[in-house]
Amino acid sequence: MSKLKNISHGFFGSNGGVSKGIYKSLNCGLGSEDSKKDIKKNLLLVLKKTKSKNKNIYLPKQVHSNRFCILTNSSKKKRIECDAVITKEKNIPIGVLTADCAPIILYDPKKNIISVVHAGWRGALNGIVKKVIKFFIYSGSKPSNIIAVIGPCISQNNYEIKEDFLKRFLTQSKRNKVFFKFSKNKILFSLKKYLAQQIKKLGVKKIEIIKKDTFSSNNSYFSARRSLKKKEDDYGRNISLIMIN
Q: What is the predicted pLDDT for the residue at 76?
């Protein structure tokens, strides 16, 4: 996508902002307990990177669902409860917030339609990214023209889960066992591979997976699980966005 001139997009980590303490420094999490003034400053810093004429980034009220919303110029002032945003409008940056969940951006350059998706395990299991791609196709997109990028999220080696989690996925399909690794009495889940398979099954072949682990302290990303392990009270959120120029 970086070669395409008519869109701006980015997967932002924790660096380059003004927040302090556990939120250091580019915390964009509106739902966090960080200073609202600092969060607004951070969002403006991100906005500058997009070179948008718009004064705001559209962020939905994320609820770990499989719902998406269609954004128009007339609806952009209302925050909707959903976990994916789709638009054909120009100069409206659309984004999602994550802290181990997977951010996904989608673009069809032929139909000039974009989407940003927040996919935690619940949204992934309930087909959030599949619903968005199916809407693209319903709107006239050919799967061969759709570009998908799965952004930084928690890696399989750090995504330890319990038996009930495993059962949910195996109840959906026994074939889902391939997304789990069983090691030293641990069950580990690959969110990236599970999402990539869903995307591929719909005929989308242009898929990029950014191999960055949000949990690893070697990478500059906020992580809910890492914060929990460190017994911190809260955590910052990474922002991912896309805009048609």
A: 73
User: Is 74 a residue whose pLDDT tops 80?
Assistant: no
Contact 195, 151 (CB under 8 A): no
pLDDT digits (tens, 9 = 90+) for 208-237: 999 999 999 989 999 999 999 999 999 999
Q: What are the chain's domains?
A: 7-155+190-244 (3.60.140.10)
160-178 pLDDT tens trace? 999 999 999 999 999 999 9
What's the one-letter identity of residue 227?
A: S
Structure pTM?
0.97
- The C-alpha torsion from 133 through 58 and 82 to 79, rounded to 10°, is -150
**Buried b or exposed e, range 122-144, using 16+ CB within 10 angstroms:** ebbbbebbbbbbebbbeeebebe
